[in-house]
Fold this sequence. Notes:
Layout: H1 7-16, H2 27-75, E1 77-80, E2 83-86, H3 90-96, E3 104-109, E4 115-118, E5 137-143, E6 146-155, E7 164-171, H4 173-208, H5 210-220, H6 240-287, H7 291-323, E8 332-335, H8 336-346, H9 348-353, E9 357-361, E10 368-371, H10 373-389, E11 396-402, E12 407-413, H11 444-454, E13 458-463, E14 470-476
Parallel strand pairs: 9-11
Antiparallel strand pairs: 1-2, 3-4, 3-7, 5-6, 6-7, 8-10, 11-12, 12-14, 13-14
Amino acid sequence: MAEPGGAGSRLSRSQAAGSRPVEPHSLFGEILDWMLAPLLFLWPISIVATNHVANQIADLPYDRQLGVSVAAIVRQVEIEGPRVSVNLPGPARDLLRADAEDTVYFQVMGTRGELLVGDDAIPSVEGGAREDAETLRFRDENIHGEEVRVAYQFVSAGPGRWPVLVQVAETRHKREQLAARIISGVLLPQFAIIPLAVILVWLGLTRGLAPLNRLQLRIRQRRPDDLSPVNLRSVPEELKPMVAAFNDMMARLDDNLEAQQRFIAAAAHQLKTPLTGLKTQTELALRETDCVQLHDYLQRIATGVDRASHLTYQLLQLARAEASHEKAHAMEPVDLESLALAVTAHCVPRALERNIDLGFEEAAGEMKILGVPLLLREMIDNLVDNAIKYTPKGGRVTVRLRAAPDWALEVEDTGIGIAEEDRPHVFERFYRVLGTDAEGSGLGLAIVREIAELHRARIEVHGGPGGRGTLIRVGFSDVAGMG
């Protein structure tokens, strides 16, 4: 029995959710199927075509013999005025029927459709087809429930009279035997050739896919930390696009790992500072006996805990924003105006503490985008908090929504502003503008950038009106069909 949380429980949850199991997929098997399926499809067609061609070939010599018999009888037909006679002696008749395998019928019909000589069992032909006169024809008929081959010819009896009809019919036994020999001679080798072809195809595919196995072995033998590109010179031409894409993915993975290592190192450094301060303040508080000084130390500890807590929270939010790049499919319609208004209202106490006028300007119409509400809330909160933090007391911060020329969210302040040379760097992690005494971790705008990129938004930094303060604008241009 599977343990809870093991493979068995995962399978049961997948089945309960109605998901379909992933079927194994083999490139070798698929190529083999596509190569053998046409062969197996064409084989029955080949058998039918061979049977048809064999019957045609078998008809040729025996049709020629039937034609000779018809010509021999035609030479014995004598037409004298209205009288038609056939001078066919007994030995000639016996010769016509001298076939050990097939039954031969012959017939001569007069100008009035009467039987002059021969067998009445042969079906007649339309006697008015005068254009067929003097031309040997063949057709298939049925006599006494048996298939026969009929050769016939009309003999002209003069102007205005129906022609004389001469017919010789023969059963198809010899023809069928000859056709069977032809078919067996053609098809029997195929029974040996087709299995041989399957084996050769199998061996050819095994040989052709060997470079894939070698490439797999090369990749499998790499060290876990080896993200260098695969050498394309030893890769087959057909695999080069795939391996090039793999190399590109490895390069991006290497960049991401390096960025993570830098981030971890910077985060560790940033966390070390407040933790060291907390430790120092705690040691001083433990040795202090003056109640007033002890209260001061405890107040500093509380402030340091708040700073460390805020830094840790922002690190978690940044990690969440980065992880959300793989969850874009979880986006949902979000009313940007309602969300921005709620965040602004939540930031009012922070603004009041610093005596800052926090305002909100709504758009002319409804603004809905596809997004992750939690991340969008965090982005707006960071923009407003950053503006409040770097605006002197008595200043003004405005959250504004614009519907033209495209949908945009703006946060404007009358703070210290950002120098032109610093604007390209303010979205980097842990970047702090020099010359400011505001406390911060340098992660707020980095979080804003990550969330904006997730929502395919464009973010810009401008100077405030009159050259004072800062205006940060997030434009959502890709909103077609999102309302």
